[in-house]
ATP-dependent zinc protease (Alcanivorax quisquiliarum), 191 residues
Amino acid sequence: MRYCVLALVLALLSTAGHARAPVFGWVEHATIEPWGVQVKAKLDTGALTSSMHAEDIRLFERENQEWVSFRARLLDQRSGEQVEKEFELPLYRDVQVRGAGGSDSRPVVLMKLCVGDTVYEEQFSLRDRSNMIYPVLLGRRALQHMGPIDVTQTFVHALGCDADSPVKAYVSTQDDADIDAEPDDENGTDR
């Protein structure tokens, strides 16, 4: 009995002071910042890099650096209207993605997304996702900064980002190196 009480006390002490990470559903509402358009985002542990819907993707050079311009045409979940925005962002890197349909190279940019009450800056590969249900897919690089996923739930967190919201800025790690090529789970499985 004494050992049970001791084990319980040690377990409580080991968790004291450690806030539990929030649990997320497998689909959450998110806003693309600073634009503010609300989208459905699929939290996908099968993907390494996050992906966002983009059209008219063009690479160009600005002040001796590679940049990407693209157009995002999305359904704003808040208003129910189709909205559109042109982006020009520095190219972070290129990623090779393999799938059943073959292999292709995609540009990757750093973007900010609000989920719950926190803004996350993450890597997003750009791809035309107009035939997918979810215009934003959050991969493991983003999920490792968020928390565990409950696959039985959706839309667990209400959106609540404002000027005072914490921002989890992207920090490059050794996990950023692609191992061979990323598998592409976008063969209709995220519909």
